[in-house]
Structures are given as structure tokens and as C-alpha cells.
Amino acid sequence: MSAEMLKGHLDNILLAVLEPGAAHGYAIIEAIRQRTGGRFDLPEGTVYPALHRLEQAGLLESRWIEPPTGRKRRVYELTRSGTAALAERRASWTHFSGAVDALMGAAA
Amino acid sequence: MSPALEHYLGEYDRALAFDPGLARRVRAEVGAHIEEAIEDGRTAEEAIARFGRASALAPDFARAALPARLRATLHAALSMLAATFLFMRLRSILFALGQAEGALADLLAAIDRAGFVAAILFGLAAWHRVRKSDTARASAPLLGAAAALFLSVAASLVRAASVAGGDPLIWATGVAEFGVIAFFVRHALRLHRHARLITA
Hints:
The structure holds 2 protein chains of 2 kinds.
Chain A: H1 3-7, H2 10-17, E1 23-24, H3 25-35, H4 47-56, E2 60-65, E3 73-78, H5 80-104
Antiparallel strand pairs in A: 1-3, 2-3
Chain B: H1 3-15, H2 20-39, H3 44-51, H4 54-94, H5 103-131, H6 139-164, H7 168-199
């Protein structure tokens, strides 16, 4: 999938990846890569401004953590609004993709 | 930290210099990400290339931070208007400025009022531009608002001084008002640089 096409869905992808729990940017990118079998290979830097934007919108919150051994990282997690937005977007996506599948997948 | 990474992070520092808090956060997050990629076996150059060009990403970070910048500017504008109004009212009541007579007193009163009204109109023009997503052009009316209030405060101070002489309260309130206006101008200039990076 092209990076441009992916960018339009980036917010939904990030919310979905953060659903299981808090994660830092590097782990989020790795999770996207693993869960899509490498088909979504985002330019890594594009993820961070999107995380900032979702935080500004109140859908995510973030904080610095410093493990006893390891590097200081900023982790992001869904807020209550973020969880609600994800459920809403997921329903909308299911509806939309079902309709597109019906059109694109149907043999003539 | 490798020289290549230091140079790369320096590009963000320079591009986001109008917002030191954002610049620090971006440096820390981007630096941690690239160092982690290096630990995973990439060279610094590869990790930087995979992350993306700073000149393309810095405007994206700025765009994400724009709502916070606009909120801060709005709070500064409202603080400036409220402080100016309250101090002018205070001087007017304490020194009975309404009873001052003469052509000069009338002229100063007119400048005082006109400046305040002009500041509000400039502020509304700026708000209109922001609402139309033309934030880059909002700073001119914002600076116009600050200039109009500056004139208004100056006229009010001269008027008060002509009635009450060198009462320290006049100059104390004047210093406070000019301080709030300077604080607002700083916000307006930061907004200008912020919006200019996004639209460049």
C-alpha cells in the first residue's frame, strides 16, 4: 500500500495499535509492521506528528517513563475519548469496507 | 550520540526554535527512536533516512502543535484586553478622569476609547483569519491590536498624569499594562513563526 494511501488511515491505525495498552513510538511502528506482515511499512517519522495530533485532540495521552535499565521514552495510551472514537471509527470502517468489498470483489 | 544524529536533531531545534518546549520534546522523542534503531543494528545514517527528512517532518510537528499555540495566543489576547480595561477603569475612577476638561483632555479620551475599540476590531479580524485557516496572516491584525492598545494606554496615562500629576499608581498601572502588551506581542510573533513554518 502506498504511503499516501496509508496516511489517510494513519489515525485509525494508531488508535487500533494502542488499544491493547500503552506503547512508545518505536514499539508502535514495530507493531504496525508485525501485525500487517510488513505490508504497512510507514516512513517512521510520520507516526510521531500523528501521535502529537491525536494527543492534542484528546484521544491519546502521553508521559515520559524511565525504566531502571534502559532509555527514557515517551509512551502513549488511549484516553476514554480515544477508546470511544476507536469503536466509532471501527464500526464506520467495517460498514465502508463491506460496501467496497461488495463492489470490488464481485465478479462481473 | 553520533555526529550525524546530532546534526539531524539540530535541524529540528532550528526549525522549531519558536517553541522551545516543542523543540525539546521532538528532540527527545526523535533521538530516542533513532538510538533504538541503531541498537537494533542500523547505522545512524540508515536510521535517519528511514525516519524522514527533518525539513518535511518539522512542519508536521508544528501543525500538530498549532491548536495549543492558538489557545495560548487567545489567552494572552484576552489577558491583555482584560488587564488594559481594568487598569484604565481603575485610573478613571481613582483620578476622576471623566471630569477633566479642555481640548487636550477630550483628544486623549478619544484616542483612549478609539484605541481600545480598534484593538477589539483587529482582534476580531485575526480571529476571522484563523477560522478561515489563514493563520499565517493572522499575526498582522494581532500586532495591530497590540499597537492600538499601546496607543490607548499611552493616551490614558498622559490623561491621568495631566490630572493627578506624578502619582506612582499611574506609572505602576502603566508598567503593568505595557508588560501585558509586550507578553502578547511575544505570543503573536511566535504564532507568526509557527504558521510560517507550516505554510512554507
